């Protein structure tokens, strides 16, 4: 009997120990069971995700930094047109993240979305490589002006390949960072610290991929031709899909929660319906919540009621206790209302950081055009490719991230008592301010270059300050946005929240295109305006001064928005998720 009792006690202790290692954020393993911290997630799974991001960024930047040159030299487009086409393409790639995020959160899940869109991306890379390698798919080399323009079919094949790459980017980008963050349980203090460390190293991986893309692959494109320059990242993308799939048993998976936009519309419709019927919050009605441990949203935990945006609370007011509580177009749960509130809450922060993306757009367009007109010799036998100039930005990020993570954060943590040293909003604010300095520097350097008696004799290293400062701004802002938009999202809006901040990169690129077109039209077009096909006859510094003014004004708006932000700088919405709400709030 003693042996039986002892055996039962040991089994009970083992079961209790196993329960303690289970995650509490709703994630499951590949068999659909609640994920175990000992066998899944954490840094056991994250390296597979980071390697996938390195390969995708390598391919994207290998194309982005040289596509202006490809369109001008191989497809015979003018410089302003090529620059706007590239910014339009980059804009589409990042705005499409909203589609990828929607599919991930609603139907496919993050892992499946990444795999599917990585394959789409790879197909686009194959088509791009064929477009560059088969002579009939691009116009003949230009021997004298005017050059023979690309035919409609040649341009269509090129744009089709770029569209597939943009679509692939749109599916991958919003899911990778969120999928990586899913590998860490926010209720575990040790894993919380590791999660914020993951965001920093994830950004490090982005810049590692960018560094390889704008140095090694640009060099290969210049020395060995466009075919090799596009073929190598194509192979890298195929390998990244295999590497990501290899981590399949080690991942933690968040279940799809259904269409978040449908739930948002239900809250709006139910709110207006009850408002039109004279319903008042707190008078004559209780707020409705299901009487279960989990929320009514599949795979999502419950959220506590907040006082902000009380008009939306009308969607959850119970007017008839005996009535139908299943129709969400008439009656929503508190959790559903709070999910919509959390999304609305972050929109002002999102809108007030878009101008930063206008600055980033110059890194792959006009910064490169400046470099092409300057002395790029590094010793007697080597010339830096103009497409490799963004290396100044990438190297800065590669150096600053480890320094920030290992030295600055521990120091600030002691001074401020904050687990991340400074808050996400403070980090974004620093990045916005530095971007103003970057454009200020760009305007001064371009003015000096334009007024120089021999602009081609100026060293390309004069562009180092503006690229370095843009890289610094990106380190602070991008990682701050990763942290902020993930923390302030609910279980059902993780991917869509990540996509929201990524979409501002696309919108910023489109705004940059619009500003270029407006300036062209207002100043005399490509022949006589500020932005001409010949950069030496242009007034690019005037364009940079305009962007500096826009960034300065945007910074002031951001300060006001961040100061008034009521979501709680450090508060994760999901920290409030296990609540039981019945009756009046």
Automatic annotation (TrEMBL):
Keywords: Membrane, Transmembrane, Transmembrane helix, Transport. Gene3D superfamilies: MFS general substrate transporter like domains (1.20.1250.20). It comes from the Eukaryota. It is a multi-pass membrane protein. It is found in: Membrane. The keyword Lyase does not apply. The chain crosses the membrane at residues 54-72, 92-108, 115-136, 156-176, 197-220, 226-248, 349-372, 384-404, 425-445, 457-479, 500-522, 542-563. It holds the Pfam family PTR2. InterPro entries: MFS_trans_sf (IPR036259), POT_fam (IPR000109), PTR2_symporter_CS (IPR018456). One of its GO terms (cellular component) is membrane. Belongs to the major facilitator superfamily. Phosphate:H(+) symporter (TC 2.A.1.9) family. Belongs to the major facilitator superfamily. Proton-dependent oligopeptide transporter (POT/PTR) (TC 2.A.17) family. This is Protein NRT1/PTR FAMILY 8.1. It comes from Abeliophyllum distichum.
């Amino acid at each position: 009997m003693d042996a039986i009792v002892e055996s039962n006690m040991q089994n009970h202790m083992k079961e209790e120990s196993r329960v303690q290692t289970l995650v509490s954020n709703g994630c499951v393993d590949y068999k659909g069971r609640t994920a175990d911290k000992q066998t899944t997630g954490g840094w056991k799974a994250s390296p597979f995700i980071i390697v996938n991001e390195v390969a995708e960024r390598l391919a994207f930047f290998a194309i982005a930094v040289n596509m202006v040159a490809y369109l001008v030299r191989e497809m015979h487009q003018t410089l302003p047109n090529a620059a706007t086409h590239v910014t339009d393409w980059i804009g589409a790639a990042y705005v499409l993240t909203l589609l990828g995020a929607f599919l991930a959160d609603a139907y496919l899940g993050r892992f499946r979305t990444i795999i599917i869109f990585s394959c789409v991306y790879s197909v686009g890379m194959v088509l791009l490589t064929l477009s560059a390698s088969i002579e009939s798919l691009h116009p003949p080399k230009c021997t004298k002006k005017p050059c023979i323009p690309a035919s409609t079919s040649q341009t269509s094949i090129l744009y089709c390949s770029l569209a597939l790459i943009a679509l692939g980017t749109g599916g991958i980008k919003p899911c990778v960072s969120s999928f990586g963050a899913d590998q860490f349980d926010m209720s575990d203090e040790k894993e919380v610290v590791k999660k914020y460390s993951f965001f920093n190293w994830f950004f490090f991986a982005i810049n590692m991929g960018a560094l390889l893309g704008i140095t090694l692959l640009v060099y290969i494109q210049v020395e060995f031709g466009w075919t090799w320059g596009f073929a190598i990242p194509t192979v890298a993308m195929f390998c990244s899909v295999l590497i990501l799939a290899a981590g399949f048993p080690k991942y933690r998976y968040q279940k799809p929660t259904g269409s978040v936009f449908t739930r948002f519309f239900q809250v709006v419709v139910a709110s207006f319906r009850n408002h039109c019927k004279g319903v008042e919050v707190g008078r004559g009605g209780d707020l409705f919540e299901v009487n279960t441990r989990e929320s009514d949203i599949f795979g999502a935990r419950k959220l506590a009621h907040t006082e902000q945006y009380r008009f939306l609370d009308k969607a959850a007011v119970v007017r008839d206790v005996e009535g139908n509580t299943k129709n969400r177009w008439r009656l929503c749960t508190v959790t559903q209302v709070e999910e919509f509130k959390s999304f609305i809450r972050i929109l002002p922060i999102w809108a007030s950081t878009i101008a930063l993306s206008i600055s980033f757009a110059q890194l792959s367009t006009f910064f490169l055009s400046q470099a092409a007109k300057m002395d790029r010799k590094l010793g007697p036998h080597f010339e830096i490719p103009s497409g490799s100039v963004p290396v100044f930005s990438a190297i800065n990020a590669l150096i600053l991230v480890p320094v920030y993570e290992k030295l600055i954060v521990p120091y600030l943590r002691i001074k401020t008592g904050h687990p991340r040293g400074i808050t996400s909003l403070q980090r974004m604010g620093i990045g916005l301010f530095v971007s103003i300095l970057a454009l200020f520097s760009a305007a001064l350097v371009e003015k000096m270059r334009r007024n120089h008696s021999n602009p081609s004799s100026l060293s390309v290293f004069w562009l180092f300050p503006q690229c370095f400062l843009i890289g610094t701004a990106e380190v602070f802002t991008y990682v701050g946005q990763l942290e902020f938009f993930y923390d302030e999202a609910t279980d059902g809006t993780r991917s869509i929240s990540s996509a929201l901040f990524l979409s501002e990169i696309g919108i910023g690129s489109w705004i940059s295109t619009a500003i270029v077109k407006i300036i062209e039209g207002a100043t005399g077009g490509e022949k006589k305006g500020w932005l001409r096909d010949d950069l030496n006859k242009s007034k690019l510094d005037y364009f940079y001064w305009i962007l500096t003014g826009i960034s300065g004004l945007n910074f002031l708006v951001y300060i006001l928005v961040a100061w008034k932000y009521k979501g709680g700088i450090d508060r994760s919405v999901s920290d409030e998720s296990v609540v039981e709400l019945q009756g009046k709030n």
